[in-house]
Amino acid sequence: MKKVRYAMFGGSEDAFIGKVHRIGAGFNPNMELVAGCFSRNETKNKQTAEFVNLDPKRMYSTYQEMIEQEEDRKDKADFVSVVTPNNTHYEASKAFLEAGYHVLCEKPLTFTVEEAQKLKKIADQKGLLFAVAYAYQGYAMIPLMKDMIKRGDIGKILTIDSRYIQGWLLEDVIHPKSDQKPWRMRPEYTGISNSVGDIGSHIEYMVRYLTDLDIERVSAIMDTFGQPLDVNTMMHVEYENKVKGRYWVSQIAWGKLNDFNIQIFGSEGSLEWNQEIPDVVYYTKRKEATQKLVRGQDFIAEGLRDQSRVPAGHPEGYHIAFSNIYQNFYNAIVDHRNGVNDALKVNDVPSVEDGLKGVSFITAAVKSAKNDGKWEKITK
To answer: What is the pLDDT of residues 87-133, one digit of tens each?
Structure first.
């Protein structure tokens, strides 16, 4: 096995998502964290570097310093994970690409469609891999659902229903404290959308991944409840084949923790998956009883079983999903070294093009909501 080294921008030890990325990457013994700029706060930056046992000389105060100081090292990183708030994704990713690094960036990719297009252009021109962390694709049952849909197990797709609802922002909406407002509720860090940009983007990507259907247009109604950005959004979408879908995205649904649910209904049956019980897919064939399909069993094709890390009945979770994204990106980098074309696609890794489509979806939803739910076409 070949070593793949990576650096990280963002993700101090007290930050949720950066830690998840490191744990996910850590499942692969051939992937090594070698450099980092974890926080603008010097103390947090140093504490994180010490915690992950990083060489102190390879801890940097800015990403610009990291690029400059690492440039001539023979053991510099192969790629950089960008796990900062949304407002730094574009400039940092652009700089890392221009310095010759592959990039894995958190979503949403950028503030604007134009920025996402520029990143794709740079990656294409330089022949670099640019992955986007739509991590829920890493759950083991998701490729199975995709395969079942592709081979026609539910027939022709008729309609799609999905929700991603949480309740964690309700307190900040009902009893706001401006000096303690989460960064996701602040436009200067988040961009034009909160709920759709944060979790609605997962619906857009996951449905597209499962069905290979691009959204043509969207009609959205957003609630802000006095906040600068949306915290509750209802959407209708129309796909390229005129199939209709319905999405509900909320961060004020009290009692809901991380309820990401996808239902896909076809002419011969349906599939349902929920992120809170990710090892299970419910398959209902027309005129037959519902089947409960569970991860890691022999009925799943060998290539699809590779996403499972432990035997069926031992619950897998969120960190494993990230681990599978990192494992597939590792495989893509090794393939890229060996001259394989379309290495991200070959290894089923979400790409910069997926990130661009996500930003286009967010932009169209916000435009629609500003026009009282008028249908808005997605920028191609």
So the answer is: 999 999 999 999 999 999 999 999 999 999 999 999 999 999 999 99
Domain 139-310+358-377 matching CATH 3.30.360.10: the answer reads yes
pTM of the model: 0.94
Number of C-beta neighbours around residue 217 at 10 A: 16
> pLDDT digits over 274-306, tens only?
999 999 999 999 999 999 999 988 888 877 777
Options 2.40.50.100, 3.40.50.620, 3.40.50.2000, 3.40.50.720; CATH for 4-136+323-350 is 3.40.50.720
